[in-house]
Amino acid sequence: MEEMFPVVDEEGNIVSAATRGECHSGSKLLHPVVHLHLFNSKGELYLQKRPEWKDIQPGKWDTAVGGHIDLGECVDDALKREVMEELGVTDFVPERITQYVFESAREKELVFVHKTTYDGDIVPSAETDGGRFWTIDEIKANIGKGVFTPNFESEIERIALI
Q1: How far, CA to CA in Å, does 111 sit from each of 26, 41, 154?
Q2: Using an 8 Å Cβ cutoff, are 150 and 109 in contact?
Q3: Residues 120, 27: Cα–Cα separation, whole Å
């Protein structure tokens, strides 16, 4: 069975449902996702490397955690699930920063953005190609060079994260 995602309006109200394939087919069905920006106490930002097999932005560095909200799941539960699945982290305190609509040539997402500070162990899953902490200077030096996903670059500029 293919994953089912809620299709939402710009306020996050569910209007219908669609498969992952339908949402990523260029249909521009607005579907919700969660992002977590994970900082350590030194102010460095953890980024994950997207594996080559991903259907969107393979091989690029991206937000520490990014994942879809499943049909019937709330934002907070999706965030906890995705952080556990992608980083093996369960003991974090998220702070919601904002929500916005991101649109690419292939999809349209309602992004719920969170951040946290965390100094514990991180165990990247097979859903990622690993990850590491980046200094803010390293990130700034690589913006616009094709190193990061366009979504990550637009998000950190939009919310003045760095």
Answers
A1: 17, 25, 12
A2: no
A3: 40
Helices (H), the chain: 20-23, 75-87, 136-142, 150-158
Q: Residue 137 burial (CB < 10 Å; 0-12/13-18/19+)?
A: exposed
CB-CB contact of 65 with 82 (8 Å): yes
Residues 33/69, Cβ–Cβ less than 8 Å: yes
Q: Residue 34: which H helix or E strand, with range?
A: strand 30-39
What are the pLDDT digits (tens) for 104-149? Answer: 888 999 999 999 999 999 999 988 899 999 999 999 999 999 999 9
Name the CATH superfamily housing domain 4-158.
Answer: Nucleoside Triphosphate Pyrophosphohydrolase (3.90.79.10)
DSSP 89: -
Q: Write out the H or E segment, with its range, that includes residue 122.
A: none
pTM listed for this prediction: 0.92
Contact (Cβ atoms closer than 8 angstroms) between residue 24 and residue 61: no
**Residue 96: half-sphere exposure toward Cβ, Cα within 13 Å:** 10
Domain boundaries, the chain: 4-158
Q: Give dist(CA 133, CA 104) in Å, integer.
A: 27
